[in-house]
Amino acid sequence: MAAAVAPIRLTAMDATPGSAVLELYADELVTMTAIPFRLTIRDAAGRPLTGARVSCDMTMPSMTMPENRPKVTERDGAYGGELIFTCAMGAWRIGCLAEKTDGSRQAMTFDIEKVRMK
């Protein structure tokens, strides 16, 4: 992923430290702006998880929001796409689920404290 900015790095709060890292490629998080992201998932041995079907769901815990599920594709040992924050009136939560080829699943949750209005 080509990006001129250093990514905002988030570690999944419900996974082994370093096993799931979400990078958001933006100087700051603002509403209604496509923000490229890259999700790296590592197995117990520290190898990148490949071949999984990964989905992400963006919600605001403090209020009901319309469905916001960015398209996720696998590339270069990671998963990525673009996400859009649609509101700046509270914290966001990005929940990701990796469905592995052996049928097992790994859930990851990333919390974002603040998004600025565009």
Fraction in beta strands: 35-45%
Chain oligomer state: single chain
| Element order: H for helix, E for strand | EEEEEEEE
Tell me about the largest β-sheet: 5 strands, antiparallel
Strand segment count: 8
Shape: globular
Key structural traits:
118 residues; mainly beta; Immunoglobulin-like; 5-stranded antiparallel β-sheet; 3-stranded antiparallel β-sheet; 0% helix; 41% strand
Question: How would you describe this structure to a colleague?
Answer:
A hairpin with a 2-residue loop joins strand 5 and strand 6 (78-83). The radius of gyration is 14 Å and the shape is globular. The strands form two sheets. Strands 1-2-3-6-5 form a five-stranded antiparallel β-sheet, with no helix packed on it. A three-stranded antiparallel β-sheet has the order 4-7-8, with no helix packed on it. With 118 residues, it is mainly β. It has strands at residues 8-11, 20-24, 35-41, 53-59, 73-75, 78-83, 92-99, 105-112.
